[in-house]
Every structure is written in C-alpha cells, then in structure tokens.
Amino acid sequence: MTRQAISVPQPDTGLGDGPRGGGFGGVLRAEWTKFRSVRGWVIGMILAALLTISLGVFAASNLNVGCGINGMQETGKACLPYVPHGPGGEVVTDSFSFVRQPLTGNGSITARVTALTGEHANLSAGPAQAGNNNMVPGLAAWAKAGIIIKQSTHQGSAYTAMMVTGSNGVRMQYNYTGDIAGMPGSVSAAHPRWLRLTRSGDTITGYDSADGVHWIQVGTVQLTGLPSTVQVGMFATSPNYTVSQNSFGGSSTNSGPAQATGVFDHVGLTGSSPGTWTGTTVGGEGPAGLNPGGRPGPAPYTRTGSTFTVTGSGDIAPVTPGPGNGLPTVTIGQSLVGAFLGLIAIVAVAAMFFSTEYRRGLIRTTLTATPRRGAVLAAKAVVIGAVAFVTGLAAVAVSIALGIPKEESQGQVLLTAPVLTEVRVIVGTAAMLALAAVFAVALGAILRRGAAAITIAVLIVVMPFLLSALNIVPAGVGDWLLRLTPAAGLAIEQSIPRYSQVTTVISPVQGSYPLSPYAGFAVLCLWTAAALALALVMLRRRDA
Amino acid sequence: MSAVREPKGRVDVWTEQRRRSDEGRQRLRRGLGRCASYLREVRRQAGQTLHAEWTKLRTVSEPAWLLLGVVALTIAVSTAAVGATHCPQDLTCSVDTTKLSLTGIQFGQAVVAILAVLTIGNEYSSGMIRTTLAAVPNRPAVLTAKAILLAALVLAAGAVAVFGSVLAGHLILPSHGFTAARGFHPVWLSYGPTLRAACGSVLYLGLIALMSLGIAVIVRDSAVSMGVVLALLYVFPIVLAFVGNAHWQHRLERWTPTTAGLTIQATTGLRSLAISPWCGLGVLGIWAGAALVLGALALRLRDA
Fold first, then answer.
1. Residue A390 needs a FRET pair 20 to 30 A away by CA distance; which of A330, A347, B73, B293 works?
2. Among all residues of chain B, which has the CA nearest to that of A66?
3. Is the Cβ–Cβ distance between A230 and A199 less than 8 Å?
4. The domain boundary residue, chosen from A276, A296, A320
C-alpha cells in the first residue's frame, strides 16, 4: 500500500470518533477512544496503580533492621539516638571535639595546624570498638581538624569552619552542606597550614596561608541570624573509615569507626572573649563514629604550652543515604519499589497499544483515516504517556503518603527532604513511568510484537538496576549501567543530593545514584526520543 | 480422529488358545490387551502431535532466532561480567567464580521466556489454536507435546550457552587474579560444585521455559503473559533488596522462582543459603509444574 493509494477522499473509517475534522486533535481523540474502549487496558492501568501501592507499602512496612546496627536489640522509634537537623532542614551529623570560648561581636580566630593524624578500625579484622586494639593508624578521606565559628554548641546549629582534611586539602565548610576548596595537599610539620576566620556581622570570611604572612581568601559566607555571641575555637573529628570493594553477593562496602587528632599552635583570637578555653564534646550522644562522649575517656583536648592537641570522632556534615553513614537511614524513595511492578504493567499496556493494531489489521484502517503516520505515532505516545503519568502520579503519591509513617515507626532515620524535592520525586517518578510507556509504544511500532516490545522495555529499565543493586556486576560496571541505560531515569527518585564532602557509597536501593536526578532523567528522555525517531522512520518506510 | 480402534483379530486368536484356562485371567488379559493397544494408539497420536508441533516450530524462523539469542546473550553477558571482574593482589575477594561465570543466565532467561510465551501465544494471536485443537482434540496432549519440544530445545540451547559461559570463566578468570594459588577453584566441569551449577543452570532455563509456557496458556495473550513472567522473574529479587525484615527475606529467598532457583549456581557459602541448591531448583520446579497443571486445566475447561 503506497501513500498515494490511501490519499483518497476520507472514507467512513468506522472509528466513530475518528479524525473527521482533521488536525492533530482528531487523531488524539481517536487514539483516546481506542484506549478507553479496551477494557483490559483500563484494568491494566488500574492494576498498575494498585500493585505499585501495595508492594511499596509492603516494602516500607518490613524494614525492621533499624536499631540493630549499633548492637541495640529493641526496635521502634524510641531506640534511635537524637538526630539533629541542620539550618536547611536536612538530617545532619554534628559530632566533634571542640576547644572553645565565646566571642561577642566581631572578631577573628587564627591558628596554625601542624599535624593531622588518626586511627581507624582495622576493617580486615572484624568489628572494632574505640580504644581497643583493633584500631590501626590511618585517616579517613574526610577526617577534619581546624577552626570553627559556631552559633552554639547545640547539634545542628549554624557554623562556618576552616579545616585541613585527610586527603582533600584545606576546605572552608559552612552549614553542613557548603564546601569550598582551599589550599591542596596534606598537612605536616614541614608544611603547616595557617587558617583564619573573621566575623563581621553575619559575614564570615575564611583565609588560608602556608606561612602566616601571605593570606589567601578562600570564601565568604553569610550566616543570617547569627547571634552576637558565638562559640569559636578549634575542632577535630573524623567520619567512619569506608572502603568500597568490588565484591559480589555480599556487602561491597566496609566501614568502621575512626578518629582524628589535630595539633594546633599560634592560636590567636581578636575581639571580645574571656580568654579561657573549654573542652566540649559536641554531640556526645551522637550516632556517628566512636561516640566519644559515651566512654569515660580522655578529654577532647590536651594543652602543652601554646600547643593544643584535639582528638575527635564523628562528623560535621549532612547525612547521605548508603551503607557508609553508620545510621539506619531510609529516604522517601524506599516505598517506591512498587513502581517497578507498576512499570511492568504500564509498559505491557503501552506495548500492546501499538502492536495490537498489527495483530488485527486495524493499522490499515488507522493509516487510511490518518495518512500522516507521524501524527498517529505522536497521538499514541501522547495518550499513553498522559494515562501513564496520571496513573503513576496517583500511585506514587499514595505510596509515599502511606509509606513514610511506616518507615518512621520502624527505628529508621528518615532523611527528610524539602517539600519541593518531594514533589520532584513524586512527579518525576510519574514522568519516568510515562516516558517508559512512550518508549514501549515506540518499541511496539518498531517491532510490531507486543511480547518483544514489553520484554525489551522492561529489561532495559529493570535489569541495570537489578544488576547494580544486587552487586551482580562489579560496582564500577553497575555505576556505568545506571549512567548510560534508560535505568538512569530512576535517579529522579533520589531525594538526598550527593555531597562531594561526604564519602557516599552509591547504592540505588538506599537512594543514591551515580547521576544527579535531572541528568539521569535526561538520559531516559534521550533514549525515548531515539526510540520515537526510529519508530517514525520505520513507520514511514515500511508497508503497514 | 475417531475413537480407539480395537485390534480384535489378534486378541481373538490369543484368547482361543487360552479358552480352557481361567476365565478371570482371560478377562484380565483381554483388558491388558485393550490397554496395550490403547497405549499404542496414544503413542501414535502423541507421535503425530509431537510431529505437528515440531513442524510448527521448525517452519518459522522466530524460534531459531530466539534460541540463538539465548546462546548469544547468555555467553556475551557472562563474558562481559567475567571480563569486568578483577581481584587485585592485596585484597581478599569473596567472589563465587562459578556463579559469576553464569551471570548471563539472568538475561538468557528472558529470551527463553519470550520463546516459551510465543510458542502458545502466537497460536492465540493468529487463531491457529482453533485449527490445532480441531486436529488434536486431546488438549492436554497438545500442551504436553509443546512442553516436551520446548524443554528439549531450551535444554539444548541452554547447554551450549552454559558451556560457553563456563568456558569464558575458565579462560579469563585465572588471568584476572582468580588463581588456584589464591584458593579459587578453576571454573571447569571437573570440579563437582561447578558441574552441579552448570547442569543446574541448564535445567533452570528449562524450568523457566515450562513455567512461562504454563503462564502463557493461562493468560493467552503474549504481551500480558510476558508482563506476568517478567514480574515473576525480576520483581522478587528487587523487592528482596528493599525488604530488610529478616523473616520476609528468608521467605522470599526460599519461595520465589528466580532467587530460589538460582541458588543452584552457588558454589561458595553454601551454609548461609536460605535453601540448598537442589531444593531451590525444586522450588522453581514446583512453580513450573503448578503453572503447567493450571495451564492444562485452563486449556481443557475453557473455550479456545
């Protein structure tokens, strides 16, 4: 059948609501009629929503691993340690050893760091506890020691700090999520680091220097609402020491407590302060690391003449999902596991939406009624995309609304996200389902076979996730699968951003993906666009 | 096809010789004779049904391509997984090298499922099923013939695919640090657990094919069947990753078709498995058997 042959005056297509009026609206209406009048497809979509919700709630109700992590047996919310939230509302870790004095009004603090050393759990020798023989010398990459200006000693309060780190040079960090790079290289007696923070109103400026003479400004930070009296001083802390290993069928990440010791001298303070130093362990009850306040042990610092030695453990950073954070965390994405089942149902309907036309020869009627084949493909994509989006939106919103209370009641730390982020997760997951449906329609047009189309559409989204999440392939390969395949679109479910200043192990099950949410979503969009383009070419070239 | 013909003449001659002997034995023998001839007839019918199904499979190109796809995809993925895995000198690697070499089965099973679903799904989509059932009114026999042929083809292709995968592991892994000197058994069929894993993986593919066939007979639509099969194959392992509850993990590991079935590939850490390898494969066998029996019932009870 050539295209000339079918450009005869419009016959009665028998489609009822067929595109008599011409134009894209008519085609759209015809395709919508086809969709809603097949009972199985409508049932399929409803089933997709129900499966998504029930599986999601089931998964969210059966976490139950909560408090076991720190050796506690009881479950439920009560056994959790106090979880601080930062100024931005995110869950943070705020535990460190602090040598401090109050500073009223404007002023500055300067110190020279001559050493940063530490010890961490010997990960090849079983579980370690602080102070026992199972610790070996070494530094976590983000072990940190330096100077800090902090609103108060309360966990989660605003701060700005200049610090030397285990292997990331000098950094200026503020309010848990902010991070600015300073001088590179590690600190030693031969290569000390001079650090300075000055306060002027709400503005804090950080400087670093190799010799105490030539200073370089690292950054300027606004801490709005800072009280006139703040705590200034020196600190040291270290997050868990984490090793990722390409292993299979088991945990690929090993993590154990660590502590850091910083040596300071040439400490100078300007402004109005009492002049006496006090040692405090901020977040003594803190969850991360060695829990320094929990053991009657050494004071957080020792002083010899003008030299301060500060030893601490914990971290001053946002909590990110993944096995390395030492906390039983969940994200709102936990109850979205049902979306995989919903995806299969939606993709099945979408694949049939096109391939069924070939089975019964309806495609010839359709293309007679609408000779513009691109318009048919577009109309089908729009109809199935819209239906899948609405179905997905309802299912995902209900899953999360029902899932969050279940997660919170099981001794898990829910990593909260701003409302806009939650909206992005919900709308984005629905859009991901819609894109997968459009992808399946395109495959249905290319392959003309429902079974093959649904298999490819499901496998290409689900398999990379499965291979990566279950450590079936090495971690590096898994990460690339989640970057390049349509499964990258799952990153839209990521509610907690990845911070460069926190060692995060990529674990899609716990909600951390190698790509940022929108980058991952764009990858899925590209795949869908490519499939649609190929479908258009095939549809135009081939006889129906 | 008419009712079973009774080969009267032969039975009569035979009875004549024995007329004076025990009447009861005579009746028994007659019954046995009828039974034997019935079986002969069934065998002839079965032979014809098998032949008919074989002709259907043989004369379209799709099954051949799909079987080739099983072999190619399985070996390609296994080789890629093996090639991407290294064990550096200074680390201890807790890698089950046999299981790693058989990674491709995870993909190959999807192609096996397509083949199985299309074996019956195509008959429904084209209306061929009505011709088939008119020719062979014995509906379970049709399903049995399909199942036998499908299983035979999948086992043959699976054997090639598994052998290729094991060969890839055997050739590549030692040069990636998985040497006998470091305690890794060479991935080869002379090592008992590897042989069990390899044979078990072939059987696994066969059982996946039978389970998919049963589901396709119940569902009758290729695309929907594929959806159900894919959900059974791949959603349970994902749910398992999300569910932290130990009881549910244990239950899912023991009773879901793929997770239980694939324990047949494990050669290390057997003590920590939720179900022993052969029992795990047995669980998949139960799934496949249940799907086939339900399929046969559905085929018998419903209008085609």
1. A330
2. B244
3. yes
4. A320
Count other C-beta atoms under 10 Å from residue A412's C-beta.
25
Residue A455 lies in a domain: yes
Distances (CA, A) of B234 to A341, A458, B66, B227, B257: 9, 10, 20, 11, 10
Contact predicate B292/B270, CB 8 Å: no
Tell me if A151 is assigned to some domain. yes
Pairing of β A178-181 and β A144-150: unpaired
| Residues ≥6 apart with Cβ < 8 Å to A310 | A97, A99, A145, A234, A235, A236, A261, A262, A264, A300, A301
Asked whether residue A5 is assigned to any structural domain, the reply reads no
State phi, psi for A515 to the nearest 5 degrees: -105, 155
Chain B CB contacts of A52 under 8 Å are none
Read off the CATH number of the domain in which A132 is found: 2.60.120
Is this complex scored with an ipTM above 0.85? Answer: no
**Given A255, A288, A320, which residue is the final one in a domain?**
A320
Residues A172 and A315 in one domain: yes
| B223 in contact with A, Cβ within 8 Å | yes
C-beta atoms of B125 and A40 within 8 A: no
| Structural domain total, chain A | 2
N-terminal to C-terminal alpha carbon distance within chain A: 7
Shared domain check, A357 and A316: no
Query: Does A204 share its domain with A58?
Result: no
Reduced to 3 states (helix: H, G, I; strand: E, B; else coil), residue A218 is strand
User: Is residue A68 in some structural domain?
Assistant: no
pLDDT in tens, chain A (544 residues): 444 444 444 444 444 444 455 688 888 998 999 899 988 899 999 999 999 999 988 888 887 655 544 444 444 455 566 778 888 888 888 888 899 899 999 999 999 999 999 888 776 654 444 444 567 888 888 899 999 999 988 888 999 999 999 889 999 999 998 999 998 988 888 899 999 999 999 999 999 999 889 999 999 999 888 899 999 999 999 888 877 654 443 345 666 778 889 999 999 989 888 888 888 888 764 433 334 444 434 567 888 888 999 988 888 888 887 666 666 777 887 788 888 889 999 998 998 888 888 877 888 888 888 888 888 899 999 999 999 999 999 999 999 889 888 877 777 778 888 888 889 999 999 999 999 999 999 999 998 888 888 888 888 888 888 888 877 777 777 888 889 999 999 999 888 888 888 877 777 877 888 898 999 999 999 999 999 999 999 988 888 7
* Helix, strand and coil in chain B, % to nearest 5: 80, 0, 20
Regarding whether A235 and A96 lie in a shared domain, the answer is yes
Same domain, A371 and A468: yes
Q: What is the pTM of this model?
A: 0.81
Residues A358 and A396 in one domain: yes
Enter the tokens of residue A49. 């929503």
Residue A72 touches chain B, beta carbons under 8 Å: no
A447 touches chain B (CB under 8 A): no
Q: Are residues A316 and A338 in the same domain?
A: no
CA atoms within 13 A on the CB side of A523: 21
Structural domain that includes position A200: 92-320
pLDDT in tens, B107-149: 999 999 999 999 998 888 888 888 888 888 888 888 999 999 9
Going B209 to B210 to B213 to B219, the CA torsion angle's sign is negative
Interface of A with B in 237-256 (CB under 8 A): 245-250
Q: What does DSSP assign to residue A131?
A: T
Of the candidates B96, B114, B246, the beta carbon closest to that of A249 is on B96
Q: Which of B65, B242, B245, B273 to mutate to test the interface with A (most CBs of A within 10 A)?
A: B242
